[in-house]
Structure formats: structure tokens, C-alpha cells
Fold this sequence. Notes:
Blueprint: H1 10-39, H2 44-82
Helix pairs in contact: 1-2
Amino acid sequence: MPDKRLKDGRNNAGMQLGITLAGGFLFFILLGIYLDRKFETGILFLLIGVFLSVAYMIYELWKVNRFSQESEQNKKSNDTDLK
């Protein structure tokens, strides 16, 4: 059976992105729950944590997209240099 894993490291990058997103989500949610219990504010800090986790996820996805675009541009410029 052929090995279907990608050879260029995209598997590792995807796994790293998933762990980073899940870790950020858990961090902000748990922080919100902790602060709500400490200050007895209902779900105020939990909601803030949800919004912060979504903002963090968008930021991380933007970084990955930017890196991917820069990588593609470098490949194209290297290809044209070789011609």
C-alpha cells in the first residue's frame, strides 16, 4: 500500500495548526470560566474568552495564509530565475 502522507511537510504543518488552534481555544475558554468563578460574573468572561479565542484563531489562520503566499511567490521567483 503506498504511503499517502505528503512529503513536503504539510502534514506536520496541519497538525501543528490544529494543536495551536485547539490550545488557544481551550486557554481562552478556561481563563474565562476561571475569571467568572473568581469574580462571580455569570458568563461575562466566558463570552469574552470565546471572542478572544475566535480572534486568535483568525490571526493564526491569517499567519498561515500569509506564509503560504510568500512561499508560493518565492517558488515562482526561483522558477523564473532558473529559466
